[in-house]
Structures are given as C-alpha cells and as structure tokens.
Design a protein that fits this description.
This protein folds into 3 domains: 8-50, lambda repressor-like DNA-binding domains (434 Repressor (Amino-terminal Domain), Orthogonal Bundle); 63-163 and 298-325, Response regulator (Rossmann fold), CATH 3.40.50.2300; 166-296 and 329-335, 3-Layer(aba) Sandwich (Rossmann fold), CATH 3.40.50.2300. Helices cover 43% and strands 15% of the residues. The chain has helices at 8-15, 19-26, 34-46, 53-60, 76-91, 105-114, 135-142, 166-179, 195-210, 227-237, 252-264, 283-286, 298-314; strands at 65-70, 95-100, 122-125, 147-150, 161-164, 185-189, 220-222, 246-249, 274-276, 293-295, 322-325, 328-330. The strands form 3 sheets. The chain has a 6-stranded parallel beta sheet with strand order 2-1-3-4-5-11, sandwiched between helices. A 4-stranded parallel beta sheet has the order 7-6-8-9, with helices on both faces. Helix 5 (76-91) links the parallel strand 1 (65-70) and strand 2. It is elongated, with a radius of gyration of 24 Å.
Length: 337
C-alpha cells in the first residue's frame, strides 16, 4: 500500500481553514494572525508534515539551498556560528552548502565567480581577512540573491549584518587591564582592513585615552588571527626599548600564541605581563595560566544571521538590519597580579 504523505490540504481540513491560510502561515507571511500560525505549526508537527521542496521549488523558483561563505570551520568560533546557522536552516527545511576561503581574498573571489546563482536561495558571508572589494557582493544582490553578513562584514554593502559589540568588548577588555594596574598596554590587532578590527582598535584606544594613558603606535601590531601571529607579534614587541606590561589580543588564538612567547622568555603571565583575549575559545580554560577573555555570542550570531537571511528570501522588500549582540568579560588568571 502506498504511504499517504501529509499535505497542507490535510492540515487545512483538520483545522477547518483554507489551504491558502495554511500555506501563508507556514511561510511566516505578514498577514497571518499569530494565533492561527501557532495552530498551523502545532498541527503540522502533530501530523509530521514535511514540505515537498521539489514542488515548492518549481512554483517559487527556490532550491532550499543556502550558501555559507566563511574563512574557516575548524576553529571554535566559526564552528559554533555554523551550529547556530544549521539549527535555523534545518528547522525551516533548508540545506547548507559551505564554502571555505581559508582567509584568502583570491579564493573568496574565485568561489563567487564560480557560484551558480540558480543553485542558491541566499548566501551567508563572513569576509576573508584581506577582502577589500564590495563589488562582487553587490552584484549578487542586484542579481536577486539575498546576502547577509555575519561577524566579518562588508560595511558598505546595503544588506543585513549580525555582529558582536566589538567596540565595547574591546573597551571593557582594555579597561579591565587598566583597573588591574597595567599601564603599558599593547594591542595585537587583526588585519587593518576589517571592520571589526577597526572597532576593537578604537575601543582599545578610547579606553586608554579615557584613563589618561597615551596611545603608542609601535605597541599596535596588525597581523593575522593565528597562534603563530600572536607569537610573532610578541617577538616584534620585545625588540622595543620600552616593552609593554599587558597585551590585549584581537582573539584568543593570538593571545595564546603571545602567552607561549612570554613563557619562552620566562616572563610570568599576570604578575609581570597581563594578557587578555577575545572569543572565549575552550582553549582559554585549558592553557596555564587560564586566559582572561571577552566572550562572543557565536551561536546566537549564526542563529540570527540565518533567521535574517530567511526573511530576505521570503520578503523581497525586507528592510536591511544591523544586529549588534553584547560581548561579556570573563576574568581568569592571566590578568591577576
């Protein structure tokens, strides 16, 4: 006997409402009463309704595929963001296609050039460290592909963006070092062209100036995000005649690399040189001494960015939004004197 698959007609019959109302409720259309939508979703779950995406795609010219373009997926931050994206995508019946740039602007451009626009309903993007072109993203949007940026954003592109509060997180991190008695505070920054690098540097500088401390340009080093970059940054700083007594790193991996470089020089972390990172990577609790850091809401960034993309997909005139989520200071041993 052929199995009967539940359709929106079955849901409509059970609730004694029209098929069009069920369809609009499942699509989260603006003109559906919230209580009606709740009843439709509850009945759909009860009946184990599964949408026929092949049929929907033919009618709506949708594939139910979302692209995710990101620098990496193996580190804690991006894997956590991706988990948030995946949760929302799965709940709405979308498949994810992941593109990894390895922080290469050339690789990013090549992926976008080869992208079959008919194969995706939308694209979630965290730009590469050296990406300085906005044109390829603007072209995608002009061609009808919704794009939403998360974490590393292209500021000039008019579309939705989801970020953590980089400025205030950096300000609080630097202020914490000042409150602990550190006065010669260096910043191990990310690539200079990225928006969040600039915001974290601004937060660092404003915290210093707010406390009457001078900003010294040779104590600000722009480089990549890896542990090796953090190690090399300290090597560069320790060639200076006047060395810092604290380090604020743009992320935890750089902070950990900096700590390893300090240990190699027999410098007591915390007591002699304070170190603070940004991310709250699990490694921050494993390394000794444990690393003070600013926790980023990575899962929520992924979740909200995917929710916004789905709104751009379903509502062609959906107004672009900038969502900024708060960061949180976590004090550990690396800043205790």
């Amino acid at each position: 006997m052929r199995r009967h698959y539940i359709t929106i007609k079955d849901i409509a019959r059970e609730l004694d409402i029209s098929v069009s109302t069920v369809s609009r409720a499942l699509r989260d259309a603006y003109d559906v009463n919230p209580k009606t939508r709740e009843k439709v979703l509850a009945k759909a779950m009860e009946l184990h309704y599964k949408p026929n995406f092949n049929a929907i795609g033919l009618v709506q010219s949708q594939t139910h595929h979302i692209g995710v373009l990101m620098p990496a997926i193996t580190n804690y931050y991006f894997s956590t963001v991706f988990t948030g994206i995946e949760q929302v995508a799965n709940a709405h019946g979308y498949n994810l296609i992941v593109f990894i740039t390895n922080d290469s602007a050339e690789r990013e451009q090549a992926i976008l050039n080869d992208l079959s626009q008919s194969s995706l309903d939308g694209l979630l993007v965290s730009v590469s460290s050296r990406a300085d072109s906005q044109a390829h993203f603007e072209e995608l949007i002009r061609n009808g592909i919704p794009v939403v940026f998360f974490d590393r954003v292209a500021d000039a592109v008019l579309t939705s963006k989801v970020m953590q509060d980089d400025y205030h997180g950096a300000f609080e991190a630097t202020q914490h070092l000042i409150d602990q008695g550190y006065r010669r505070i260096a910043h191990l920054a990310g690539p200079a062209g990225l928006t969040f690098t600039q915001k974290r540097r601004k937060g660092y500088e404003d915290a210093l100036e707010n406390s009457g401390l001078s900003v010294q340009s040779d104590w600000i080093i722009h480089s990549g995000f890896s542990q090796e970059c953090g190690f090399d940054d300290v090597t560069q700083l320790w060639k200076l005649a006047e060395k810092p007594d604290a380090l604020f790193a743009v992320n935890d991996r750089k902070a950990i690399g900096a700590m390893l470089a300090l240990k190699e020089r027999n410098i007591r972390i915390g007591k002699e040189v304070g170190v603070i990172g940004f991310t709250n990577d699990p490694m921050a609790q494993i390394i000794s001494p444990t690393l003070t850091t600013v926790a980023e809401p990575a899962f929520d960034i992924g979740k909200l960015s995917c929710e916004l993309l789905l709104k751009h997909i379903s509502r062609k005139n959906f107004e672009a939004q900038d969502v900024i989520l708060p960061a949180r200071l976590i004090v550990r041993e690396s800043t205790r004197r």
